[in-house]
Amino acid sequence: MGSPMPLEDQLPIATISLRNLLPARQGSFSPASSRYPFALILLTIAGVVFRSEIALLIGAHTLWNLLFRRRFALSTVILSGAVGLIVGLSLTVPIDSFFWQQFPLWPELSAFKYNILQSRSADWGTSPWHFYLTSSLPRLLFNPIIYALCIPFALASPVLRSPAADLLLPNLAFVAIYSLQPHKEWRFILRPRRVLDLDPAR
After folding, report:
1. Per-residue pLDDT averaged across 64-83, rounded?
2. For the whole prediction, is pTM greater than 0.70?
3. φ/ψ of residue 34, rounded to 5
4. Do residues 145 and 201 lie in contact, with contact meaning Cβ atoms separated by under 8 Å?
């Protein structure tokens, strides 16, 4: 049982959120900034309503910025996540409960239990752990110059290394963690794919 929404419906929300996670060109990304709370709220809403695996994306970016960049306080993370959770649940539970005629119903929680806790995702087929890195991402990135030349150059350049890492590492962490799930589909990694396209463009 899941939300009657295609996976792609949350991509605009995720794209706007990831844009707000990027450091501003001028000035530092301070704890008082409204950009990160806004991004976290939007990503939490998208995860609650559309796709529960967005929680991994939130976690990867949050840990990176909280532990390695120290751009915001833990209280900001907790408050923003709570706001997004409340808003998301207030949207999905009434609407999906009405359509499924079962109350209370949180479809993404049901999907999480089925796929993760009960390990039933393998019923839809399995792929090797390296499928995303060796098959899906190279095809989604289209141009091999992106991952063979541009990304390594950005990480090697002293000027580009920090902003490139901000884009690249949290999203690769998301792909790596998601690779532990036996069932794999290229559409599951569309969100980090957009950021990996952007990384060499900086």
Report:
1. 87
2. yes
3. -90, -5
4. no
